[in-house]
Amino acid sequence: MKHLITPNDLTNDEVLEIFEDARLFQDLETNSLLSGKIIVTLFFESSTRTRSSFEIAAKRLGANVVNLEVHTSSTSKGETVEDTVANLNAMKPDAIIIRHKDCGLPESLKSYVSCPIINAGDGKNAHPTQALLDLFTMNEHFDGEINGKKIAIVGDIVNSRVATSNLELLPRFGLIPILVAPERFKVTSKFKTVTDLTSVIDELDILMSLRVQHERHEVIESKEVQEEQKQEYIKNYCITKELFGNREILLLHPGPVNRNIDITDEMLLDPRSKVLKQVENGVAVRMAILKKLIPFKREI
Ligand code: NCD
After folding, report:
1. Given the CA of residue 210, which atom of ligand 1 is nearest to it?
2. pLDDT 10s digits, 50-71
3. What's the mean pLDDT when you consider all of the chain?
4. pTM, two decimal places
5. How much distance in Å is there from the Cα of 214 to the middle of ligand 1?
6. Which DSSP string corresponds to the chain?
7. Which ligand 1 atom sits closest to the C-alpha of 49?
8. pLDDT tens-place string over residues 277-300
9. What is the mean pLDDT of residues 228-250?
10. Is residue 61 in some structural domain?
11. pLDDT for residue 79
């Protein structure tokens, strides 16, 4: 049984195989590869892109999707997530996709199921499908020439599962990350880490901007301090046309974008911004992931 909890659950060959399939699925046409399969989604944290992307990917492959409304499910009556998942598993779904605020929860659920578990984000721990669609987007953009490309990951790195999973996956394909963050968002890392974005801008091929993960901040500052930090953040880390100049840098963001805090309106419209391309690629990559993890009968 293959699960996808972190990018390290896939070998480089498996990642490339997923990309090959994703390329075939890029027209996002519907097929019947997973017809008759049932996929359950369980989102305990809010989501726009990831949940709909998985649902559309599953439906494009002909599968049925059951979205469990967690706020009206038995977990709100005191049932543990483990019991909820064991009960769902007893109904023999073909995969369970889960997002939860607790780091490590999807991993611990493996022993409760007989179908693949796909991690759609666990706290700040991991978000493997986002990292895969990010890498796919870079790979397509540079026609496979990603070895040695430098990518700045900018913002709330310490609280971002997107950063964690990208830092796990991208170096395996030769990308060189540079972490750019104010002191309070830095992590101890083997990768180059700077506070000043302008000091590295000339080196970059790719820039991935991140949203400030307010929901994961343990210390809640006063309104005044929050406003001060926000203005300071915008001044130093908001991606602007002035910052990019004429440089050919691929601009990415996992979404949701906080406009004019993470990236300006103007830069979101700039052709170097591929934020919506990431979303489009996300469906194709998730189709390929579902195809990889869910056993299906090949038509002869
Ligand atoms: C991210 C997430 O939920 O981790 N969004 C996403 O899945 N595309 C990033 C975020 O919430 O900032």
Report:
1. 12
2. 999 999 999 999 999 999 988 7
3. 96
4. 0.96
5. 12
6. ---BSSGGGS-HHHHHHHHHHHHHHTT-----TTTT-EEEEEESS--SHHHHHHHHHHHHTT-EEEEE-GGGSGGGGT--HHHHHHHHHHT--SEEEEEESSTTHHHHGGGG-SS-EEEEEETTTB-HHHHHHHHHHHHHHTTT--TT-EEEEES-GGG-HHHHHHHHHGGGGT-EEEEE--GGG----SSEEES-GGGTGGG-SEEEE----GGG-SS---HHHHHHHHHHHHHHHSB-HHHHTT---EEE--S---BTTTB-HHHHHSTTB-HHHHHHHHHHHHHHHHHHHS--PPP-
7. 8
8. 999 999 999 999 999 999 987 655
9. 97
10. yes
11. 92
- pLDDT reading at 173 higher than 80: yes
- Of all residues in the chain, what percent carry a pLDDT higher than 70? 99
* Cα-to-centroid distance, 210 and ligand 1 (Å): 9
For a substitution probing ligand 1, which of 55, 99, 130 has the most ligand atoms within 8 Å of its CB? 130
CATH number, residue 194: 3.40.50.1370
Q: Which residues line ligand 1 (CB under 6 A)?
A: 49-50, 121, 127, 130, 161-162, 211, 254-255
Within-domain flag for 299: no
Q: Report, as an integer, the average pLDDT of 137-146.
A: 98
One domain, residues 113 and 152 = no
44 and 142 share one domain = no
- Same domain? For 144 and 184 the reply is yes
Atom of ligand 1 nearest to the CA of 160: 4
**254 and 149 both lie in a single domain:** yes
Q: What is the mean pLDDT of residues 199-209?
A: 98
CA–centroid distance, 24 to ligand 1, in Å, is 26
Q: Give the distance (Å) from ligand 1 centre to CA of residue 213.
A: 9
- How far is the centre of ligand 1, averaged over its atoms, from the C-alpha of 134 (Å)? 12
Give the position, in ligand 1's atom list, of the atom nearest the Cα of 47: 3
Q: How many domains does the chain have?
A: 2
